[in-house]
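Cross-posting from the modeling subforum.

Setting up a comparison between two proteins and wanted a second pair of eyes on the formatting. Protein 1 (sequence, then structure tokens):
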Amino acid sequence: MFKTEILTGLDIDAPEERVWAVLTDLGSYPEWNPMIRRASGELKPGATLTLRFHPAGRKEKVYRPRLLAVEQNRELRWLGKPGVRGFLESQHYFFIENAASGKTRLRHGMVFRGMLVPLLGRWLETSTREPFEKMNRALKVRSEA
């Protein structure tokens, strides 16, 4: 199976617990998140989230991914199926790590798998990276406030 990964990240001048609290407060997403404009669901492995993706200049899409990992202050990861199984699937993840001097390192990415990856690889990169980076910066601002 073909695979590609888009990885973004940055350091946040706030403790891991604060970054986690902002990231997992789904109800506050409309206040700060430029990519996921609304989010709801129970944060536990196996649960289904409802996410309204609406980055600036793009058509709104609603996804219902299944949570794969919810590890407090460490990892949030879900499985999305934007296409037909085997043709295009994705895992969206956030990893929160302790960085030097009381900062937190955020690694935010997505792994795409499927037969369409070679055909869509460049488009997946260009359509994913900028909204992820905008969300990262917004998470940083909110966490540091």
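Protein 2 (same layout):
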Amino acid sequence: MSVEIINLVLIYMFLPGMFILAGVYDVLTTRIPDWITLSLLAVFFLFAWAQDLTVMTFALHWGVAVIVFVLGFLAFSMGWMGGGDGKLATVGALWFGPQFAPSFMILSFIFGGFMVLAVIILRSITLPGIVERQTWLMQWVRGKEGLPFGLAMAGAVLTLIQIEF
């Protein structure tokens, strides 16, 4: 398999697939399993090789990831986001590096804002019984759990790979 094919598989299948999986887990369980984050972290080394990253560029990717990790830790300690969300944002920033990580974070917050608006709307209307019986949805509508920010990050990844790559 050529390096170009590996690169395409990683960018257009593995990366979005893992973020979609994380988003689905987050929606259904309000958790993002560590194995997803660790898989993204481990495969990043293959991605770096396929991208032929220089040592400096590789270090910059890690630098951005460290910054996002610290910010995610602070957000987690303030109760603004879950720990799994912070770890997923960190590996997303690692993959996107200094060039695209800001766009990844901005898009994640935009999609997160749409989720907040959707929950506000859902809280303001009478929901049909069939919706009320969906515990995975009602946990956010009733404010029992934080919003599934993994889903917002999945939307950001899908958007970025269409725009930037």
